[in-house]
Amino acid sequence: MLYSSQLILLATTLGLSAAREIPSNVQAFFDANINVKCPNALSIPYNSGQGESDTVYCKDDASGAIYLKDTGNGYADMDIDCDGVNASEGACSNDPTGQSMTAFQDDVQKFGIDDLDAHIHTYVVLGNDNSASEGNGGEKFNPTDAGIQPLSVVAVVCGGNMFYGVWGDVNGGISTGESSLALGQLCFPDGGITGDNGHSEHDVLYIAFEGAEAVPGASANWKANDSAEFEESLATLGDQLVAKLGGGEGAKFKRSRIMRGKL
């Protein structure tokens, strides 16, 4: 028999992280769109890193949601962003492009933290502040032009689960498909995710939602101690937003806590 102190040690050793089953309406959307072209592209194709100019920002007219879509089959990959506080610490120490601040540092400081922390906050990088020297004609894409607001909830389908993050940073050039280290490690816990090692397959679906109703504000746990705690604080609002996708108002959401790691 394990005593309480042993159980606590076991849980600490394994590491407790959140996993959320993909709601049926989101899975139906994923399956219906993965092998078709974007019906309503809002941008020029940008670079995923696996191929030049192969990923667009696409709008779902039925729900108003914005998602990243491969110009062929698939969705997006997941490169890793370590910008913000502790940018060079731990698994971010090998990030060749890490910066000490995120695009929305001023916004997030209203919630009592210096900036987002890629080790804790499950954030997604959206938008392209492209310049002529970086290619693609210098055409930019700003998600706010499509109604997406900074620090709004983004649903991410990855690794057979779904997680919630926030729009927390902007691409400085023509790259797409990027998330914080925290989100990458939740999505692919056995993928060896670091600041310089992401997930290259185009099977990650990022879904951003328009309007002020998608912004969690003070209801998010910006001072969370770990990624699972922060991600879970976005769940109530996130569930409401994804229920609109594909007319899935009655979709049932299942959450589970799962142990990952080694003894």
Describe the structure.
The chain is an alpha+beta fold. It has one domain (17-259). The chain has helices at residues 4-14, 24-33, 105-108, 181-187, 227-233, 235-242, and strands spanning 16-20, 55-59, 66-70, 76-81, 123-128, 153-158, 161-171, 178-180, 199-208, 255-259. The strands form two sheets. The protein has a six-stranded mixed beta barrel with strand order 4-8-5-7-6-9. β2 (55-59) and β3 (66-70) form a beta hairpin. The longest helix has 11 residues, at 4-14. The protein is globular. Mean pLDDT is 87; it is low at 1-17 and 248-263.
Largest sheet: 6 strands, mixed, barrel
Work out the number of β strands.
Answer: 10
Strand order of the largest sheet: 4-8-5-7-6-9
SS element count, helices? 6
The value of Rg in angstroms is 18 Å
Helix content: 10-25%
Can you tell me the residue ranges where pLDDT is under 50 for at least 5 consecutive residues? 1-17, 248-263
Q: What proportion of the residues form beta strands (DSSP E)?
A: 15-25%
Task: Summarize the topology.
Elements: H1 4-14, E1 16-20, H2 24-33, E2 55-59, E3 66-70, E4 76-81, H3 105-108, E5 123-128, E6 153-158, E7 161-171, E8 178-180, H4 181-187, E9 199-208, H5 227-233, H6 235-242, E10 255-259
